[in-house]
Amino acid sequence: MATLPQHVQDLLAHAQEIHCPDSSLYELLQQNNVDILIASDGGHEGTHGSFGWVIGTHDEVIWDCEGTARGYPMQSYRAEGYGRMSLLLFLTHYIRYYGIKTADDLRVTSYCDKSSLLETEEEFHTRDVDSSSWYLKPDHDVIMTLSDVRKELPFQLISRHVKSHQDDEREYNDLSRPEQLNVLADHGATAALDELRAAEETKELHPLPACRAYLRDATGYITSREIRTLRTELPEYELRAYLQKRNDWSDDTYDSINWQAYGSASAGLTDSFRTFVVKLTHGWLPIGVRERRCSATTDLCPQCDDIETVPHLYRCEARSDWRHRFSDPPPRAP
Asked: In whole angstroms, what is the distance from residue 318 CA to residue 326 CA?
């Protein structure tokens, strides 16, 4: 295990053999007229992703695994892909490590409840030409890795879709074998996800070698929605540079502001009130001292004889009605 690439070690770290008196994976891979059944599943909540898989026959489960899906933004599609990737990599390295000569008619049937993943994987694996457009597809690094792994498989792989969570409606013993294996894989993914939530830490991505290019920002790798990221984050970098220069803010000062909360709070305001908040925040209100710098003839408050500054807006006795209106909850957009 220690000699394997980091991403492979991570994917196979928790694979374990389950004792079965009738058969072992080592024996099954070399026998004729044998159907090996495998199933994988993924779990996702917020920034956390997990997977689980099982290997078995029509009667037994002989290996299982659970682990962490990595990448940002995390979504169920990616978590499912990680489970399938871990499962196929395990079979590849198991056969290679033991030098197994697989049976000529060996068939391995895999089950996954994410049909879109299976369709995209097959489309990429059977493509006629390479195209840069694949790098714009969600989680392309996982799809490329799955295709690379499949090229090395010394057996016929049959991929099938299975409906998820069938145990919500029927007893486990009443399910078909593919549905049972899917349930077991789902249990593994759920257990791994529970551990991730309890730990409250985001796992860093181990880049997948099959992907020749990744997009990165200050927080790490971007594994999906790259076009949206470029459209939104490039202007944000320019705005950040402007705000830090204008306000003489350090990186720590800028990062200490909860910009997501600020954006959420202002998003629901009416246009006029949002304009006021932005101007107030950045010192752009047309008050006397600012207007004087822009060639106005005076910087005095039009309601009294004091110099008009932002603090003066809240102290001026002639503006008490305005202050009362301002203290009311801000108007929300319809």
From this structure: 14
* Domains by residue range for the chain, with CATH: 6-199 (3.30.420.10), 226-257 (no CATH), 261-334 (no CATH)
Q: Considering the entire predicted model, what is its pTM?
A: 0.76
Question: What are the tens digits of pLDDT across the range 104-135?
Answer: 889 999 999 999 999 999 999 999 878 888 88
Contact call for residues 63 and 55 (beta carbons, < 8 A):
yes
Encode pLDDT of 272-298 as tens digits.
888 888 887 777 777 777 777 777 778
Tokens at residue 268, please? 């629901």
Residues 55, 61, 65, CA angle at the centre, nearest 5°?
Answer: 55
Report residue 327 as tokens.
């203290």
Contact predicate 285/279, CB 8 Å: yes
* Per-residue CA distances from 102 to 146, 153, 221 (Å): 21, 10, 38
- Give the type of residue at 80: E
